[in-house]
Design brief:
With 253 residues, this protein is of the alpha/beta class. The protein has twelve helices and eight strands.
C-alpha cells in the first residue's frame, strides 16, 4: 500500500501528525477523523503495548490516516513486529551515532538493504496482494530521533546513513542533554531555535525530511514556517487535558 505521507512530502506538502498515548482503538478512531495526515502510536512513553498498537492501526485504517509508531527502543524485534502490524513508518528514540542509525535502518529494511524478517501478517493484507515485500523498502519511513548532544555531534554521519528518510526532534530530551531546563516542549530559547535552524538546513541539503514534537497548533505552524516538514500537535492525552482545563477555566471565569 502506497505511503500517502511520503508522497505528500515528496510533493512539498507540510503535514500535521497526531500522537496516540491512550491504548484504545476508539481514541485512534476519533483522532483519525480530525484532519491529521498521520498518527503515531507511542510505545516509548505512552501506555501502549503491541496489541493496543494493532488496535490503534485498525481504528485509523478506514479513515486514510498514515499509521506510524514510535518504538520503545532501537531493538529489531519490536521494529519488525510493528512494521508487520501495519506501521508505514517508525520513529526511533535516542539514535546518537552512525552505527545506531545503521542498525535501525537494517531492522526496517528487507534484504539486501537490511535484515528484516519476512512475515507481514497484517501489513501484507492491504494493497495489491503479494506485493508488500517488493514495495516495503521504498514505502516504509525510517526516522531516527535527534534528542541529545551526542546526536548533534554525529548529525552529519547519521543523516548520511543510506535509508534514513529524515529525523524527528525531541525537544525535552534535547534540552536536558544540553543543560537547558526546564524540559518543555514548545521551546523559545535562542540557542535551541538556532539548533532547529541548523537541523532544517542540514536536512534540506540532503533532501531529507524533518519533524518535531510540539504541543500547540500555533507552534506547529511556526515550525512549518521555519522549514520543518511535519510537526506533531500534542497527543490524545495532552489535548484532552488542555481542552478540559480550558473549559473549566471558562466555567470558573
Amino acid at each position: 500500500m502506497a505511503n500517502k505521507l511520503k508522497d505528500a512530502w515528496k510533493g512539498g506538502k507540510k503535514t500535521v501528525n497526531g500522537w496516540l498515548a491512550i491504548p484504545t482503538a476508539f481514541s485512534s478512531e476519533l483522532m483519525a477523523q480530525l484532519g491529521f495526515d498521520s498518527l503515531t502510536v507511542d510505545l516509548q512513553h505512552g501506555v501502549q503495548d503491541y496489541m493496543s498498537a494493532v488496535a490503534c492501526f485498525q481504528g485509523m485504517q478506514p479513515h486514510g490516516t498514515t499509521p506510524l509508531a514510535r518504538v520503545p527502543w532501537n531493538e529489531p524485534g519490536i521494529i519488525g513486529k510493528l512494521l508487520d502490524a501495519g506501521a508505514q513508518g517508525l520513529i526511533c528514540p535516542m539514535v546518537n551515532t552512525k552505527e545506531q542509525a545503521e542498525a535501525f535502518v537494517a531492522a526496517c529494511r528487507y534484504p539486501p538493504l537490511g535484515n528484516r524478517s519476512n512475515g507481514p501478517v497484517r501489513a501484507g493484507i492491504y494493497g495489491e496482494p503479494g506485493r508488500y515485500f517488493y514495495t516495503a523498502n521504498d514505502d516504509v519511513l525510517c526516522i531516527p530521533m535527534i534528542e541529545t548532544k551526542e546526536a548533534l555531534d554525529n548529525l552529519d554521519a547519521i543523516l548520511d546513513v543510506p535509508g534514513v528518510d529524515g529525523i524527528y526532534v525531541g525537544p525535552t530530551d534535547l534540552g536536558i542533554s544540553l543543560g537547558i531546563l526546564p524540559p518543555v516542549m514548545d521551546r523559545e530559547e535562542p540557542e535551541i531555535l538556532r539548533i532547529y535552524e541548523m537541523l532544517v538546513k542540514k536536512c534540506d541539503e540532503r533532501g531529507k525530511w524533518i519533524g518535531i514534537h510540539c504541543t500547540t497548533g500555533a507552534y506547529v505552524k511556526r515550525m512549518h514556517d521555519m522549514g520543518f516538514t511535519f510537526g506533531t500537535m500534542g497527543s490524545d492525552v495532552t489535548n484532552l487535558v488542555l481542552g478540559v482545563r480550558a473549559q473549566l477555566a471558562g466555567l470558573k471565569g
